[in-house]
Amino acid sequence: MIISSKPTTLSLLSRILELEFGESRLQHYGLFEDSNYVSQNTAAELLDSQQRFTHSLDELVGKNDADAVVLIVGDTLLQLAKSMAEAGKPVYWIGAKSLLNPEIDALVSFQYAGEDFVALTNPAAADVLIHGGSIRYLDQMALLSKSRDLLGASGQLIIFSEFLADDSYIEYSALPNLTSFKQLCKRLGFKELESRDLSASAAHTLKLLRPLLETHGAALAREAAEDSNVLEDLHAEFSTMQDEFSTGRRGFHLFVLRRESNAAYEWAGAEFGDIQSFNPLEVADLFEKSFSVDFDEELWNWKYVQGDGKCVVARLDKQSDIVAHYGGAPRKIAYFGEPSMAIQPCDVMVHPSIRKQYGKGSLFFEVAATFLEREIGNTVNHLLGFGFPNQKTMNISKRLGLYEKTDDFIEIVYPVSQAIEEQERHQAVIADYDPLDAASRGELNSLWALMKDDYRDGIIGVRDADYIQHRYLNHPFSKSKQYRCLIIRAESSNKALAFAVVKEHDGSKLLMDLVCPVAEMKSAISILKQELSRGEGGAVLRLWVTSSGKDKVFTAGAIVNELGIEIPCNSWNPGPEAEVLYGAWWLTAGDMDFI
Questions:
Q1: CA-CA distances (angstroms) from residue 266 to 185, 189, 363, 452, 499?
Q2: What structural domains does the chain harbor?
Q3: Direct distance between the N- and C-terminal alpha carbons of the chain, in angstroms, rounded to an integer
Q4: What is the pLDDT of residues 147-199, one digit of tens each?
Q5: Which one of 64, 160, 449, 592 has the minimum C-beta count within 10 Å?
Q6: Of all helices (H) and strands (E), which one includes residue 350?
């Protein structure tokens, strides 16, 4: 029973069982489903129920040919591997080498295959693969891809784990989403032969374990003296698990899947990978063919290495070049006053040779859906997605059920100011922002705190000094001085009124970012406009902003232009509804990754 993704929790639970029974092999749940079985609610039932579960796995394997090669993954399945090898079945086992003993090593049909499943190269082809234990949701793609590699034609994957069964409300979970797991299995060419909901057995296992946690708690605390909170943390996690099973949020499921090497699904043989699966230069050709601009490795590294970017890529097979890429740039946000995370989809690319296919089942759809399932939603690392897709991509994504619209992106043009009467001149001074000056960083953070407070009823990306450093000062474009970061201060008191970033753009000045209280925005824009009129050769000031924010920044004489850009949200998997998000975002040009 792998109860947690934390190794410390696993070792503690193993130790509990060892203290009680003198052995520890109960790291997967017991089986209590037999209608003839009547529970006595005693601790002794734990080992019996575990043996019953192991026997059920043996029966599933027994449905295959007698000489079927079996690959077994997991420390607690070592006894199953041993019993099958003793029966003469060819068995490979992956787990901790320290658990082996001379008796097991001497078995002719048993081979130790190592500890790292994803790095495994032997056996070349297995007929049955058994994988037991909890899967972290981001590990699913690598696990299933590797399983497909190791299984021969029509090979079977028997996999059991805890899954997230209810993702209807906002709360992070490391567990794989049950619905997304099934979709990913199909996407990677697996057909479901059998599924068993064993959640009731898992909940009963926890019920029987709870008294042992109380009985052996003092001994655990003594053994973990260096960590005074270990027992408290274990109790809290245990309670969470029981609560989630009782409410149906967490489930325990077993699947029997068959590899379909000749599936009717066109992309069943495609290889999917994440950001760790390729070198950046491998996408250079795809990037240039997709966007007709040179690939900028420095910009790519800024976004995906420094910025912890995410992506899903696809190859037609293991040997082919990358033919599709769907990326994303994470962003800290304030979501209706609460800290959260969003991600901006970007670098969406499909090779021209297959780009004409955009329906459900197309490679574009499969890569996009996989990315959304991994990265955006109520229970994963990023609650929201947002972005600035071109109209074609937006229309396709809406039609496929991937996106919905939450706002429009517009341009406000502030014409060159005419001569300003002295009484109308704003009493302010503008100075370059010094990121190395602690006082200047403090001023920026104070301005951001005031601005964030004004967006308690909306959604806004974090604009503190650390973000400004990454977005503008560490950006590759900063080397050519494309960004000018400014502090606007009151002339009389030297108090910071606003922070702004401007950039040359098509012969005018583009206001990339503005950090100040909402009540000061129009004044700050007027000050910037006056400065540009006097000292920048009469440059026009432009601001790109979400349409819902227009009234906060519109001044007399300004002109509003449509940009033809709609702001999307994820609609593929559960997350905040578009109705909740509509008109809630504050976004400017600085929120784009490539301007």
A1: 14, 10, 9, 48, 52
A2: 7-259 (3.40.50.150), 276-401 (3.40.630.30), 412-591 (3.40.630.30)
A3: 50
A4: 999 998 889 999 999 999 999 999 999 999 999 999 999 999 999 999 999 99
A5: 449
A6: strand 338-350
